[in-house]
DNA sequence: ATTATATATGAGCATATGTTCATATGTATG
DNA sequence: CATACATATGAACATATGCTCATATATAAT
């Protein structure tokens, strides 16, 4: 194929794709997103279930929040997080399926 | 949900999912895989089209090879690479679609 | 055999990323 | 208002990652 016949991706597109996959590439975030895909959770619950520090969970949630992959609602002192991007959850579940059935 | 009612992912599954997404998370590898999804390419061609050094391309191809995402055939001194994992290409294309249509 | 071409690979370096620790913020309650 | 509880955040540190540079390997041609 000639150089000029290639269909190139816009660099903005590449950056966005990279961003999506980067977020899905960390085992901790995979666990958090998978957990949140099953149920709405507060921060301490996530930390307990995944056996992580509250701080580590909170840092990761902040990343997921910034990318609008999760949302939250407050109930008193407690924040309940849930998934906010069906498409990303779909990518995650496909990869899980693929990984499980090898 | 009670602790014991969660459906947990096997740690092996999590590692495999992470591996898939890590490989897709790098802009250079995104470009290479997208290019190879369009046509079989030799190493120098990839380097020219993507304006990268031969060495950088070769290092990335080595990563893709190790994960069996690409295969190659030899023709004289030249190696022709192509995609070898339709599922990963499918994940990539879905993410591109999503990123483009925001 | 020598040389040229195509590709691979190891070492070193700079940057990115995830965790911990300490501390700050926000909300309810006495 | 003081205290407790839930969560967030900044700094520091360790590890991972991708590039470059130099060099090695493989194949072909002279």
TrEMBL record, chains A, B:
<dbReference type="InterPro" id="IPR036388">
    <property type="entry name" value="WH-like_DNA-bd_sf"/>
</dbReference>
<keyword id="KW-0804">Transcription</keyword>
<keyword id="KW-0805">Transcription regulation</keyword>
<protein>
    <submittedName>
        <fullName>ArsR family transcriptional regulator</fullName>
    </submittedName>
</protein>
<dbReference type="InterPro" id="IPR001845">
    <property type="entry name" value="HTH_ArsR_DNA-bd_dom"/>
</dbReference>
<feature type="domain" description="HTH arsR-type">
    <location>
        <begin position="9"/>
        <end position="102"/>
    </location>
</feature>
<keyword id="KW-0238">DNA-binding</keyword>
<dbReference type="InterPro" id="IPR036390">
    <property type="entry name" value="WH_DNA-bd_sf"/>
</dbReference>
<dbReference type="InterPro" id="IPR051011">
    <property type="entry name" value="Metal_resp_trans_reg"/>
</dbReference>
<dbReference type="GO" id="GO:0003677">
    <property type="term" value="F:DNA binding"/>
</dbReference>
<dbReference type="InterPro" id="IPR011991">
    <property type="entry name" value="ArsR-like_HTH"/>
</dbReference>
<dbReference type="Pfam" id="PF01022">
    <property type="entry name" value="HTH_5"/>
</dbReference>
<dbReference type="GO" id="GO:0003700">
    <property type="term" value="F:DNA-binding transcription factor activity"/>
</dbReference>
């Amino acid at each position: 194929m000639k150089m000029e016949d290639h269909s190139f991706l816009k660099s903005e597109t590449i950056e966005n794709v990279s961003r999506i996959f980067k977020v899905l590439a960390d085992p901790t975030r995979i666990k958090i997103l998978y957990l949140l895909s099953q149920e709405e959770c507060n921060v301490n619950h996530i930390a307990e279930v995944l056996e992580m520090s509250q701080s580590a969970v909170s840092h990761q949630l902040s990343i997921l929040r910034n990318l609008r992959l999760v949302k939250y609602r407050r109930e008193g002192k407690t924040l309940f997080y849930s998934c906010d991007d069906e498409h990303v959850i779909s990518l995650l579940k496909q990869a899980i399926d693929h990984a499980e059935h090898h």
